[in-house]
Design goal:
single chain, 707 residues, alpha+beta, eight-stranded parallel β-barrel, five-stranded antiparallel β-sheet, 15 helices, 20% helix, 20% strand, elongated
C-alpha cells in the first residue's frame, strides 16, 4: 500500500531555481548562491522539500528532490540563505508489517537540522495511523501534521571555536553532573532573563561556585533537541531530564533565546576560559518517536526500516531502552549520523566529551554486546572523537544489558557498584568492608584489564536518577507521587538511611547525624581512586522531598534552592577537592595492588586495622569489621621520594583506638569529618564513631601548605 498525500502542494517560489546539488554533506548547507539539501532514505519512492515562512506557520513552496546518489536524496535551491525554514515529506509504502511507515501527509524534521523553529504541538494528526481505528497502527491517517511539527532552520556554517579547551587529565578530573535549567532557575545572583539558560550557566556566579568546589568538568543532562511526552503534557508535566531526543544536532531551544547555537558556544567558551570542561549527556540509543503507536516526526517517516531495530518481521520495535524504540546504529547511515553529530558538537559546539546514555545499546551487535563492534571501532579510529572524554552508562534493559567493566579503552564507565557498595557500608549493612576496600582502589576487579587506567571507574554516590544526597540521608522510601504514577516509578531499593526519622525533622541530633553522614559519603568519594562525580545540588544540601525519579519535575522540586544552601557543606566539599588536588596519591592512573615496592621499600598500598595490624582473612570476613584503614603511596611509575604517603581511616562503627603506621616517623591529620573546621594537625588517640580521617606522612612532605 502506497497512499498519496491528500493536500495539494504549494506552488514554487519565484526566483528559487532547483538544480541537482550534491549528496554531501548531509543536512542543509549554505553555498555561495543558495542552499544544498541532502537527506538519507533507502526505502522512500520520493522525497519532497517543503519551505515555510520564517515563523514556520505557512508552507510556501514544495520541491521534489529528483536526484539520488545511492540512498542520499539531494538538491540545490538558489536564492535561499541562512534562516530559511524547512521540512521534508517522504513518499513510499505504508506497510508496517514490513517495517515501512511512509506517510507524506506528515511533515518530517531533517535529522541533520542545526536549529529548530517552534515547539511540538501534540495532536492526533502527528500519528501516521488513525487513532481509534480497529486496524490500529495498520490504518492510515491523511491529516497534514505541518502545523504541529517543529521546523528545521538553515544555519550558516560556523567556524570552529578557538581551541581553549582545558584538556584536563583524567587523573585530575572532578565531574559535576548538572541540569542547565535546574542549576540556575532559582539562583539569586544570576540575572532573571538568563536563568535556566546556557548563558545563565556561564554566569560569573555559577563559574565562581564551580571553581570554589574544585570542579574541572561539567556534565550536562541532555541539551540536544527533545520532546515533551504526550502523557506528561496531559498531566501538566514536562520532560525535565530531556531523554527523548528528536534532533541530534540542534541545541534544545528552551535553554536559549533565538540566538541558537551562538549562546551554547558562548557558554562553552566562558567555561573554558575558567578552566572548566563541558561534557554532554547524549542519547543515541533511541528517539522521541516512541513505539509503533508513537508520532511520525522524523526518522520513522523518512525510513523506519533503516533508522530503527525492528522485530516481528518489521512491525514492532526492539525495546532495549524501555522507551519504545531502539536506534539501529548497526546501519551504516545511522552510525554515520551519530558520528557526524558527535563531531559537530566537538568541532562547532566546542564540547570536551560525552556521556553515553544506555551505552550497551550502542555496542549490541547481532551476536550480543561486542566491545569491538562497529560503534566502538568508529569512535576509536576517529581523529576527532578518539581524543575527547568518553563515558559510558554501561547497561540497558536488553539481553545481556549489564556490561560494567566490558567497555574498550578509552571509555570510562559509570560505576553503580561503587554507588551501592559505599551507600551500604555507611548505612551499616554487615560484611561490607571487603566491598568498600575494592571501591576505594578503583574497582580493579572490574576495570584492571586491557591496559585500562584506574580512572576508568567513574565513582558516584548520587546522580540525577535516584535519591540525591540530602534525600539519601533523610528518606528510606521514595515519594514520587508528583510524577502521577502512583509512586510506582523510580527505584525502590536505594540503600538509603534516614538516620532515625523519615523525612524532614527539627531534631538537632538527627540533623547533626545526617550532616555527618553527608560529609562521610562525600569524603569517601573524593579519597577513592577513580574519577569522582558530584551531583549538582548535593554540595548545598538541596532536597527533592524524597522524589527519586524527578524526570518530569521542571519546577522547584528539581531547581536548586540556593536560598537554603548549606555554606558549611559547600566549603567542606571544596576542601575535599583541594585535598585531592594537592595529593596525587589519591588520584593515580595505575591500579594499586600492594605488590609494587617503591624507592623506600614499602608497597604502594597496605591495609590495616585500627590497631595498626594488617587485617587477617577472618577480619575481612567478619560482618562487624567496620573500621577500614589503608596506607597509600604512589604506584611504581611515580616518584616515591617526592610524594607524601596518605593514611585513610574510614570508620563506619563506634569510636575505636587508633594506632598510626610505623612506616613514617610522623603523621599529620589533614581531615576529620567529625570536625569539618579542623584546625589541629595532631593525630587523635582514637578514630571517632562514624568518621573519615585522612593523614599524610611528614617525612617526604612536598612544598606547599595544607589545602
Amino acid at each position: 500500500m502506497t497512499p498519496q498525500a491528500t493536500s495539494a502542494p504549494p506552488a514554487r517560489l519565484a526566483g528559487h531555481a532547483l538544480t541537482p546539488g550534491r549528496p554531501w554533506p548531509l543536512g542543509a548547507t549554505v553555498t555561495g548562491d543558495g542552499v544544498n539539501f541532502a537527506v538519507f532514505s533507502a526505502n522512500a519512492d520520493k522525497i519532497e522539500l517543503c519551505l515555510f515562512s520564517s515563523d514556520g506557520r505557512k508552507e510556501l513552496a514544495r520541491f521534489a528532490l529528483r536526484d539520488r546518489d545511492g540512498d542520499v536524496w539531494h538538491c540545490h535551491v538558489a536564492g535561499l540563505g541562512p534562516g530559511a525554514v524547512y521540512g521534508y515529506r517522504a513518499h513510499g509504502p505504508y506497510a508496517p508489517e514490513r517495517g515501512h511507515r511512509f506517510n507524506a501527509n506528515k511533515l518530517l524534521i531533517d535529522p541533520y537540522a542545526r536549529q529548530l523553529e517552534g515547539r511540538l504541538k501534540w495532536s492526533d494528526a502527528l500519528m501516521g495511523y488513525k487513532i481509534g481505528s480497529p486496524r490500529g497502527d495498520l490504518s492510515f491517517d491523511t491529516r497534514d501534521s505541518a502545523f504541529a511539527v517543529p521546523k528545521a532552520v538553515v544555519m550558516a556554517d560556523l567556524p570552529e571555536l578557538p581551541d581553549r579547551r582545558p584538556h584536563v587529565l583524567w587523573a585530575d578530573t572532578v565531574i559535576y553532573e548538572a541540569h542547565v535549567r535546574g542549576l540556575t532557575m532559582r539562583h539569586p545572583k544570576v540575572e532573571r532573563g538568563a536563568r535556566g539558560t546556557y548563558l545563565g550557566l556561564a554566569s560569573d556566579a555559577v563559574i565562581d561556585h564551580l571553581q570554589r568546589l574544585g570542579i574541572t568538568t561539567v556534565e550536562l543532562l541532555p541539551v540536544q533537541g527533545f520532546v515533551d511526552d504526550r502523557f506528561l503534557i496531559a498531566k501538566g508535566l514536562r520532560n525535565y531530564w530531556g531523554y527523548q531526543t528528536l534532533s541530534f544536532f540542534a541545541p534544545e531551544p528552551r535553554y536559549m533565546s533565538r540566538h541558537a547555537l551562538a549562546e551554547f558556544r558562548a557558554m562553552v567558551s566562558r567555561l573554558h576560559e575558567a578552566g572548566i570542561e563541558v561534557v554532554l549527556d547524549v542519547v543515541y540509543n533511541h528517539t522521541g518517536e516512541g513505539d509503533a503507536f508513537g508520532p511520525t516526526l522524523s526518522f520513522r517517516g523518512l525510513d523506519n526500516a533503516s533508522y530503527y531495530r525492528l522485530t516481528d518481521g518489521g512491525r514492532n520495535y526492539a525495546n532495549d531502552t524501555g522507551t519504545g524504540n531502539t536506534l539501529n546504529v548497526m546501519h551504516p547511515m545511522v552510525l554515520r549520523m551519530v558520528m557526524d553529530s558527535l563531531r559537530y558538537w566537538v568541532e562547532v559546539g566546542g564540547v570536551d566529551g560525552f556521556r553515553f546514555d544506555l551505552a550497551t545499546v550502542l555496542g549490541r551487535e547481532p551476536g550480543g554486546f561486542d566491545p569491538n563492534g562497529g560503534f566502538f571501532d568508529a569512535i576509536r579510529q576517529d581523529p576527532v572523537l578518539s581524543h575527547v572524554k568518553l563515558i559510558a552508562e554501561p547497561w540497558d534493559i536488553g539481553p545481556g544489558g549489564y556490561q560494567l567493566g566490558a567497555y574498550p579503552h578509552p571509555f570510562r564507565e559509570w560505576n553503580d557498584k561503587y554507588r551501592d557498595g559505599v551507600r551500604r557500608f555507611w548505612r551499616g549493612d554487615p560484611g561490607m568492608a571487603p566491598d568498600l576496600a575494592e571501591r576505594l582502589l578503583g574497582s580493579a576487579q572490574k576495570f584492571d584489564h586491557s591496559g585500562r587506567a584506574a580512572t576508568t571507574s567513574v565513582n558516584f554516590i548520587t546522580a540525577h536518577d535516584g535519591f540525591n544526597l540530602a534525600d539519601l540521608t533523610s528518606f528510606t522510601v521514595k515519594r514520587n507521587f508528583a510524577n502521577g504514577e502512583d509512586n510506582r516509578d523510580g527505584h525502590s531499593d536505594n540503600h538509603a538511611d534516614n538516620l532515625g526519622v523519615e523525612g524532614p525533622t527539627e531534631d538537632k541530633a538527627i540533623l547533626a547525624a545526617r550532616a555527618l553522614r553527608r560529609r562521610n559519603l562525600m569524603a569517601t568519594l573524593l579519597v577513592s581512586q577513580g574519577t569522582p562525580m558530584i551531583l549538582a545540588g548535593d554540595e548545598i544540601g538541596h532536597s527533592q522531598g524524597g522524589n527519586n525519579n524527578a524526570y518530569a519535575q521542571d519546577n522547584e522540586t528539581s531547581w536548586l534552592d540556593w536560598d537554603k544552601a548549606d555554606p558549611a557543606l559547600t566549603a567542606f566539599v571544596g576542601r575535599l577537592a583541594a585535598i585531592r588536588r594537592a595529593h596525587p596519591v589519591l588520584r593515580q592512573r595505575r591500579f594499586l595492588h600492594g605488590l609494587d615496592l617503591n624507592a623506600d621499600g614499602v608497597p604502594d598500598v597496605i591495609w590495616r586495622r585500627a590497631d595498626g595490624e594488617r587485617p587477617r582473612p577472618e577480619d575481612w570476613h567478619d560482618p562487624a569489621f567496620r573500621c577500614v584503614c589503608v596506607e597509600l603511596r604512589m604506584a611504581v611509575e611515580g616518584d616515591a621520594e617526592a610524594q607524601d604517603a596518605i593514611f585513610v581511616v574510614i570508620n563506619g562503627g563506634g569510636a575505636v583506638k587508633l594506632a598510626m603506621p610505623a612506616t613514617a616517623p610522623k603523621w599529620e591529620l589533614i581531615l576529620d569529618t567529625t570536625r569539618p573546621d579542623l584546625t589541629t594537625a595532631v593525630p587523635p588517640a582514637e578514630a571517632p564513631a562514624q568518621s573519615v580521617l585522612l593523614f599524610r606522612s611528614v617525612l617526604n612532605r612536598r612544598k606547599g601548605g595544607q589545602p
